[in-house]
Structures are given as structure tokens and as C-alpha cells.
Amino acid sequence: MAITLEIFAQQVKQALLSDPGPAGRETVRKLLEQAVIDSELIKQHLGNDQPQRNVLYQDRDLGFAILGHVFHEARRTNPHDHGDSWAIYGQVSGETIMDSWEIVEPASEEQPGKVRLRGSSVLASGSARTYNEGEIHSPRRDGPAKLIRIEGNPSQAAQAKRWIAID
Ligand SMILES: [Fe+2]
């Protein structure tokens, strides 16, 4: 069933109001899996003419943001966390290979931490995955891809630490 961005945002908000913890996020993740296969919603907000990163909605009360991403070519992101925030990645089209990392040496204010690759998995179109506070990950795409991402609180993400990958 077609959904509008406004209704989707309100459903997310309700879920997070009911439970801001893991259970609420799991509800949001499932809602996102519905949204990424909604062809009308995607046509309207994630067309090929959309920018690589587009804030579709930001909630004034709770702080969460819904972002659209349209990547036209292969792209790799460095290992990162989202500080004291969380993020849910929903794949619309193409696929994202998600690397996850374990900490070898913690990061400090002055120095980036060191991380080692723990594993990789594919985020296929139509699926969504949650990354909780402090989980270190790095998405890469070998070709064009579209995603909708929900960030718990982008202002908290400013506290994200820096990480360097080692073998
Ligand atoms: Fe991320």
C-alpha cells in the first residue's frame, strides 16, 4: 500500500515515543522495510535527480531524521560509528556491503582508534538493518544504489570517534 513521507514519519515517531529503546527501533526497522519497497514513495523522494544525501524529514521533538541517499556510482565509506546516536539503513535498490569492525585500540580525544575487520554482509534491496550506539561499520557499494536511512539523533553523531582500519 502506498504511503506518504508524512505518514511514514509519524509512524516512526509513534514507535519511538512508545519505546525509544531496542524494541521501538525494531518497529522502526520493520516500518523502513515497508517504506523502501513503496514504489510511489521512492518515485517521489528518491528519483535519479535527487542529491546523494537529502534530509527528507527531521523531527523537532525527538530529533530523529529520515534521509534519502541516491548514489550513482560505486562508493566506499570509512569505518565509523554514530556517536551517541543510532542509525537504521534501508536498502531501496542496488546493494550495500556492510563491513563491521572490532576495536583493537580505543579512540581518544586526540587520537583515532584502531579497528580490525570482523565481517561483511550484504544489505539487499528491501531490507533494513539497525546500528546501535557505538557500533562501528562501513558501507560500500560497487555500483549505483539508493537508500533511506534513519538517524536517531544527528546532533549526537557529532561525538562520533575517529577510527583507522588495520589488517
Ligand atoms: Fe553509518
What does it look like?
The relative contact order is 0.24. The chain has helices spanning 5-18, 22-35, 39-45; strands spanning 54-58, 65-71, 75-76, 87-93, 96-105, 113-123, 128-131, 137-141, 145-151, 163-166. It has a single domain (5-166), classed as Jelly Rolls (Sandwich). A hairpin with a 7-residue loop joins strand 5 and strand 6 (113-123). Helix 1 packs antiparallel against helix 2. The strands form two sheets. A five-stranded antiparallel β-sheet has the order 1-2-9-4-7, covered by helices on one side. Strands 3-8-5-6-10 form a five-stranded mixed β-sheet, with no helix packed on it. It has 167 residues and is an alpha+beta fold. The structure holds fe (ii) ion. Fe (ii) ion is lined by residues 80, 82, 87, 131, 137.
How many angstroms separate the termini?
Answer: 46 Å
pLDDT < 50 runs, ≥5 residues: none
The bound ligands are: fe (ii) ion
**CATH homologous superfamily placement:** Jelly Rolls
How many structural domains? 1
Task: Summarize it.
With 167 residues, the chain is an alpha+beta fold. 21% of the residues lie in helices and 37% in strands.
Throw out a few tags for this protein.
167 residues, alpha+beta, Jelly Rolls, five-stranded antiparallel sheet, five-stranded mixed sheet, 3 helices, globular, binds fe (ii) ion
